[in-house]
Amino acid sequence: MPKGKKNLNPDETPGVFSSMVQDFLTYVVDTKGESKATQRSYKYAFKHLAEYMMEEQHIGFGAITFSMMTTKMIENYVKWLAKERKNSNKTIDARLAAFGAFAKYAVNHNFEAAAHFQRDLAAVERRKPEDVEVSYFTVPEVRILFDLPKHNTISGRRDATLFPFMFATAIRCQEVCDLQVKHVTFLEDGRARIRIRGKGEAMRTVTICEDVAFALRRYMRYRHILDVPEAFVFNTQNNPKMSVSCVEDIFDKYIRIARERHQELFQSKHYSPHSMRHTTAVCMLEAGVPLPVIKVFL
Hints:
mainly alpha; 3-stranded antiparallel beta sheet; 12 helices
């Protein structure tokens, strides 16, 4: 061994951790065939870990070692997720679950490097699930949200189409981000058939009414994507595809405006894009649609 060189233990060697993470993320796609939702969850766990280590510890992702990932470090990461990213306990537990799957993989491939990490991770206390309020919009609130976006801006045109579309389809947040032109078929009677790729890659088809279909076609024509099958229906000014956080920001923006203008309404503590899905289900139930039919629709 050259003079002055330290013989690092495997868990202290830079590059081993980051290389193992890359191998793991490839493994969950190519070998395990996990769903896209699980793949995204795992990627976000390590993406946010990289952000935390750089912002709080001033350590680049490639310089992270297994020995750094102590119980205290992981607990501090969890606190950062809750404070800085405003993540719910459910989301934080999903990040820890991703670490758990990675630890199992890493121990099987390099026990000497990863054993301490797996042990320390097991010592991290899991978050208690919150009491989740199932929020939905009343009919007057839905109408207000529909009317808020301004059609004289690019984002306003998108949002004016997005809200009624999400109501008409009861589509999930990630599903609307993934929606492509090829999934939309405009029918001769003025309606439109929408194929939605849901959880577990399962496909379901819903048909939307003439008014919403007209608005959707008008928006797609405005974007010049009617004949571009692979284009994503909803985008941002900087990206061809919206992200879940973008949709959440859109809802937060308009609900904040709505509350300022209509203080007697929007009384739920927490609204999210999923609230629109709940709203559709409630409206169907109040209209006398049988529960089994609603379940199939959703």
